[in-house]
Amino acid sequence: MTTVAQTQLSPAEEAWDILRQLLGAERRRFLAAAAELDLHPAQAGALMKMEPGTAMPMHELAMMLSCDNSNVTGIVDRLEARGLVTRRPYAQDRRVKHVVLTPAGTDVRTRVRGHMAKVPEAIGRLSLTDQRLLRDVLRRAVESG
Amino acid sequence: MTTVAQTQLSPAEEAWDILRQLLGAERRRFLAAAAELDLHPAQAGALMKMEPGTAMPMHELAMMLSCDNSNVTGIVDRLEARGLVTRRPYAQDRRVKHVVLTPAGTDVRTRVRGHMAKVPEAIGRLSLTDQRLLRDVLRRAVESG
DNA sequence: GTCGATAGTTGACTACATCAAGGTTTGAGG
DNA sequence: CCTCAAACCTTGATGTAGTCAACTATCGAC
Q1: Of A10, A21, A119, the CB nearest to B142
Q2: What is B14-118's CATH topology?
Q3: Is B11 in contact with A135 (Cβ distance < 8 A)?
Q4: Using one digit for the tens of pLDDT, what is the confidence trace for B14-73?
Q5: Could you tell me the residue ranges of all domains in chain A?
Q6: Is A48 (CB) below 7 Å from strand C?
Q7: Which residue of B7, B123, B144 is the best one to mutate when testing the A interface, meaning the one whose CB has the most A CBs within 10 A?
């Protein structure tokens, strides 16, 4: 019921309108996935941004979550308290601390990403031709920088 | 940099992967738009869900925001304190309270939606043919329920 | 008319956003 | 060198949001 065409929409506008509906559904899935793993949304978001063998500076995490540095401090505190990540000093620049996934954290991260990677029904029920069409258009959208 | 293909992705999976990148960027835009209007994300979300001349029961708002009823109480409290919405009793069912946009609220809502309706660059720079293609595929995705 | 279910509120608790301030470290310029 | 602005992280204060349990009022059905 979010789709209301009071004025005529351009193709791009209408496409974007539909995409935003997907976004709403996606948000729910994300919240549900996080809750199922006993994570708060921000914590789940942080885990998702991390790569298993790769150390990430706190401030970079802040950028990716588009939030304040001081915010990341708290989030990482809690993740660390649960043994999902570790802080590690960074010799090259001692202002920086790196965050690393522990094995337990890697496991949880995999599960969060598993939930989110599942293709939404709306897309899954498209014909294979349409799925390929969609993929190709989207590829062009992001690559033609 | 979110696109990593460690295993071969199906067309749907790859499409979904790209879409999630778009949605991430969208989240930032949403936060920025809300901040610009001095709204917290949940408040902006609530305003977006409301239609100008249409009263909405609190619990329906809770459903749309996928949050608790008690949560909506607080959000509406604050919106009401700023004169953006009003609570109104509902005679047919006196357990229910309706929320209605005030003129000021309607104005703010329009501005929030204006921000969000702006087509992202990635889609905007597609050829018109591709935009139509995208729109058509997405139409099929949501309508073939 | 009783009783289970629903709508909204309240209160307690945690987490998170934002901002200002402070400590440490770095890098660049004098 | 040495200073100094800037970057990184942390802490504390404040307001807001999410979750859960309890409570009131109302509805609907039996």
Answers
A1: A21
A2: Arc Repressor Mutant, subunit A (1.10.10)
A3: yes
A4: 999 999 999 888 899 999 999 999 999 999 999 999 999 999 999 999 999 999 999 999
A5: 12-143
A6: no
A7: B123
A139 touches strand C (CB under 7 A): no
Domain A12-143 annotated CATH 2.120.10.30: no
Residues A31, A41 contacting (CB under 8 angstroms): yes
Is residue A50 scored above 80 in pLDDT?
A: yes
Give the per-residue pLDDT at A64. Answer: 95
- B140 CB neighbours strand D below 7 A: no
Q: How confident is the model at residue B1 (pLDDT cuts 50, 70, 90)?
A: low
Contacts of A112 in chain B (CB under 8 A): none
> Helix A128-143 vs helix B11-36: angle between axes, to the nearest 10 degrees?
50
How much is the average pLDDT of A60-75? 97
Chain B residue with the nearest C-alpha to that of A31: B66
B137 and A134 in contact (C-beta within 8 Å)? yes
Q: Is the pLDDT of residue B74 over 80?
A: yes
| Set of chain B residues whose Cβ sits within 8 Å of the Cβ of A28 | 66
- The gap between A79 CA and D4 C1' (Å) is 36
Amino acid at B36: E
Q: What is the pLDDT of residues B96-141, one digit of tens each?
A: 999 999 999 999 999 999 999 999 999 999 999 999 999 999 999 9
Predicted local distance difference test score (pLDDT) of residue B145: 62
